[in-house]
Amino acid sequence: MMVKTWFLCLPFFYYLFLINDQKQYKIHGFAQGTDYTIMYYATDSVVTKTSIDSLLGKIDQSMSLYQKNSLITQFNSAEHEIETDLFLNDVLKRSFEINKDTKGIFDITVAPLVQAWGFGPTENKIVPSDQQTKSILTCIGMKNLKLNKGKLTKTKPCVQIDLNGIAQGYSVDLIADYLTKKGIKSYVAELGGEIRILGPKPDGTPMKIGIEGPDQNGFPVIRHIATLNTGAITTSGNYRKYHQNGNKKFSHLIDTKTGYPIENEMISVTVYAKNAITADGYDNALMGMHLTEALSFVAKRKDLEAYFVYHKKDGSVADTLSSGFKKLIKN
């Protein structure tokens, strides 16, 4: 009888031994014009920097505007259409969905405007004239795109796409999928500030993620700490990436309806969602809304939460959180 009891308990002790034997591994690298950090727990280094770089390299060959032979570059140079790959097809499908849901605020055909305002792959420091901007607008709008059976078609040769507002989130999801396939059950994957989490840690404690935003002087600080065990957190903001022309600041976020950089009270938006492609796509769209509109938008979507940093009417910096995001904050 005693032998039988010991035999039944053995798997439990063995399980505890495996948890305690897990080590923390970290990988740092550079990809997609930014850096990445992956932290995971495992009994061995089952994921290497080489494997991650290989994965990100394949993604770049599909969607990087800085790769001369990438599929996205081929499409932007094409007269009519190209055949997509799995990566490009996945991101395009989600882009069409978010474009429809945001009533056109999220729009990947923004590429010519991004370039005109000096934020594209080719250096440009000249502010476009009103006439130039108006001319470019004829090439803008996802109504000018069609995705069907692995082919992406444009209605006009001047239509070009920019996936920077969603592709990094998708890349983080692919990294997360790769980690999961390797049997890793506890990790934080980050690329350019876009994060995907799976927890808890082997000791049972949850993951903690610092939520950044500007202070009253515009300097980046950690404003909150989020505690969670699953999902994705991404941030879009205008306090880091902008052009200065005299006293005028031009945000890299462009309104595809007007053709001009977005000017509203928003400073940054941090989004929580189940996956990073969703969070990444919506954080840009929410930056294009006014605060009350953005809060209402998030409240109507059960799988979306957000944290907003914004300018009050007197110019001071304030913040607010959706009800679901408040539950992630422990400080």
From TrEMBL:
Q: Kind of enzyme, top EC level?
A: transferase
Instruction: Give the UniProt keywords, A-Z.
Output: FAD, Flavoprotein, Magnesium, Metal-binding, Transferase
Cofactor note as given: Magnesium. Can also use manganese.
Which residues take part in binding Mg(2+)?
G165, D280
What SUPFAM superfamilies does the database record attribute to this sequence? ApbE-like (SSF143631)
GO terms for MF: metal ion binding; transferase activity
What's the Enzyme Commission number for this chain? 2.7.1.180
List, separated by semicolons, the cofactors it needs.
Answer: Mg(2+); Mn(2+)
What is the reaction catalyzed?
L-threonyl-[protein] + FAD = FMN-L-threonyl-[protein] + AMP + H(+)
Query: Hey, which family's this protein in?
Result: Belongs to the ApbE family.
Q: What is this protein called?
A: FAD:protein FMN transferase
What is the originating organism of this protein? Pedobacter agri
